[in-house]
Specification:
- By secondary structure, this protein is of the alpha/beta class.
- Helix content is 44%, strand content 15%.
- The protein contains 27 helices and 15 strands.
- The protein has an 8-stranded mixed β-sheet with strand order 8-9-11-10-12-13-14-15, with helices on both faces. The chain has a 5-stranded antiparallel β-sheet with strand order 2-1-7-6-5.
- A hairpin with a 5-residue loop joins strand 8 and strand 9.
- It is elongated, with a radius of gyration of 27 Å.
């Protein structure tokens, strides 16, 4: 392996590398979707997998489609097992364009077709799960989305499984795959290249790109990167290796925006880096930019300082590692950099509850202001306080406290949460010495807020509900719309299965959060909100809140969804606190009738309906709500 010289690598002997054209996307992934249930259950459904393993008849039936494909002429199947396929397909399913609508449509369709579904005694969990998962995964658009994603990469790319067998390559890597394949078996790498990879030190950090002591047919450096997957065998994670060669036709493509932001690279520094990545010397960069070589060297020194590197080789390796992270949306790298929320991390505070569990929170506004505790949405966390809150809180003399509930953001998940949350929140309020406080719950957070209000804490004053999703009895589920409608039907039959399906959807969203969730957000905005959000960074704030809230795990979100879709069965007539309900006419989670039913169940409630607002009403009307 070459450590320092990225421009003039040693060229390994190529006689043994010549090979006919290799695998295509269709050849690689053709068998996947005919065995979708098996692959998904192995990867993401440990409970169902255990059930299957305990029922041998079910196991043989489950494997039948896969065994048929394994005997086909597609060479890729002979080198794959269920874990490799399942890990790959699991990361492919997060298609940004269609997943959300497909999820809702298919869930409703299968539930409607299953006459016995609403009667748990006649319900085959495995059978319905098979139908839902199979349909969700059988879309050709999924393959197209994955292919399109990787074809926008700066790299010619080949994905290798743990046995160094090629399992996918993007279309610009056709020639590369042919070049590195074994001439006697084009489904495998050449023995010489395998030897090079296997000779690499095993203790190298998997996050970095390594320059192999080898070039391709055009004389371009071949790089290697290892990504750890999510499926495990014998407690060990599955790993994939990536062969990467820079595509010179993409030399003018912009650098990764996250990379530019992280290192605060100027436009001139970016230009220097782009040229370095694609093999240009300092002299060539200077001539192309009409500047002196000293000027280029000055930019390079600044780059070294910002990236904490000391050589061209180090900085190029660093940049290419970041550039290759387009794949990290689909593979979970063990060296993944955890998301850091924007704003002021020093605002984060924590309390340790009597049972030893920790709650992370943020405390906004004047310390002597009237306390308001926000029960954030299921897609939020402690950072979701509306834009311009500083002036709003000063004007209204409000102190706003937003805790990350267990399993959200930085608060570790507590087993069985939300069970026990009311007691933990009471302890949280005690530790903050809150003598009196109001609560604001938004969307699913409203369910949590009403559940606490039913405890009749004498310190609790007003309750504010923004776009409330509160289910007190089963009849109220009929007022749910969008994603929550099929979710509630699943919960009524199987809480465990509903949580697993919902977590699958959540993983799809969070893996594509900057594209997929943004599109979901855009489609859900009310007519009046859209113009308001265009004027500030509220969209980014909402995305930021979801990204930070889901950055550690999805357990809090998925368990709370099940809890909030389960009727509370509380006597709401005992809640004598004043309750203000805020509802937008463009809400895509609960109907207006649902908000009216909730109001009628509460003895001291008022309903404020605003035209042109949606379930995001908390953000544009924040000041009016808390005044």
């Amino acid at each position: 392996m070459m450590e320092t010289d990225f421009k003039q690598p040693s060229k390994c002997t190529k006689d043994h590398l010549a090979a006919p054209r290799g695998l295509t996307l269709t050849a690689c992934l053709k068998p996947i979707f005919t065995a979708t249930q098996c692959l998904f259950f192995f990867c993401c459904q440990p409970c169902l997998f255990s059930y299957i393993m305990d029922n041998r008849t079910g196991l043989s039936l489950l494997f039948q489609p896969l065994m048929v494909n394994a005997s086909s002429s597609d060479s890729i199947t002979s080198g794959m097992d269920n874990f490799r396929f399942s890990n790959l397909i699991y990361r492919i399913i997060g298609q940004p364009e269609r997943w959300h609508d497909d999820y809702i449509d298919i869930m409703n369709q299968v539930l409607d077709e299953t006459d016995s579904f609403d009667d748990p005694s006649n319900f085959s969990e495995l059978e319905v799960g098979d139908q839902i998962i199979s349909r969700l995964h059988s879309s050709n658009e999924t393959l197209a989305a994955f292919s399109t994603l990787l074809d926008t990469s700066r790299f010619k790319l080949i994905i290798l499984d743990q046995k160094l067998v090629p399992i996918y390559h993007n279309h610009i890597a056709d020639d590369l795959l042919a070049y590195v394949s074994d001439p006697d078996d084009n489904s495998k790498l050449s023995p010489a290249l395998i030897s090079l990879i296997e000779a690499l030190p095993s203790n190298r950090e998997t996050d970095s790109i390594q320059a192999l002591d080898c070039v391709d047919g055009n004389g371009d450096q071949i790089y290697l990167r290892t990504i750890q997957g999510e499926a495990v065998t014998d407690e060990q994670p599955i790993s994939f290796k990536l062969l990467l060669v820079l595509d010179h036709e993409r030399s003018q493509s912009d650098l990764n925006p996250d990379l530019v932001e992280k290192f605060e690279l100027t436009a001139k520094e970016q230009k220097v880096l782009l040229n370095l990545i694609h093999g240009k010397s300092i002299k060539q960069i200077a001539e192309a930019s009409f500047v002196s070589e000293n000027t280029v060297k000055t930019h390079l020194k600044s780059i070294y300082r910002k990236t904490e590197t000391n050589s061209q080789a180090d900085v190029i390796r660093l940049i290419l590692t970041h550039e290759s992270r387009i794949l990290d949306s689909y593979f979970d790298s063990s060296a993944r950099i955890m998301h850091t929320p924007k704003g002021n991390p020093e605002l984060d505070q924590q309390v340790t509850l009597p049972d030893g569990n920790v709650i992370i929170y943020r405390d906004y506004g004047p310390k002597d202001g009237r306390p308001l505790v926000v029960f954030h949405n299921g897609f939020g966390c402690r950072v979701t306080i509306p834009i311009g809150y500083e002036e709003v809180l000063q004007r209204t003399n409000r102190r706003v406290i937003i805790p990350d509930r267990p399993g959200f953001g930085k608060s570790p998940y507590i087993k069985k949460h939300p069970i026990g949350w009311n007691e933990r929140f009471r302890e949280f309020a005690d530790l903050l010495e809150l003598q009196q406080f109001d609560i604001l719950g938004t969307v699913l957070g409203s369910h949590m807020a009403i559940n606490y209000a039913a405890e009749q804490d004498p310190r609790l004053g007003k309750v504010i509900l923004a776009s409330p999703v509160v289910i007190n009895d089963k009849k109220q589920t009929q007022h749910l719309i969008g994603i929550l409608a099929p979710s509630a039907r699943l919960v009524s039959a199987s809480k465990r299965f509903a949580r697993e399906i919902y977590e699958l959807w959540l993983k799809s969203v969070t893996l594509n959060i900057k594209t997929h969730y943004r599109k979901m957000l855009e489609s859900s905005l009310g007519t009046k909100e859209r113009d308001l959000f265009d004027q500030d960074d509220t969209r980014e704030l909402i995305i930021e809140g979801f990204q930070e809230g889901s950055s550690v795990s999805l357990e809090g979100i998925s368990h709370e969804m099940v809890f909030c879709m389960t009727p509370l069965k509380k006597d709401l007539s005992k809640i004598t606190n004043p309750v203000e309900i805020w509802y937008g006419s463009d809400d895509a989670r609960m109907t207006l009738r649902g908000a009216e039913v909730l109001r009628d169940q509460l003895p001291n409630a008022t309903l404020n309906v605003r035209e042109g607002y949606s379930e995001h009403i908390y953000y544009p009307l924040f000041e009016e709500m808390i005044a």
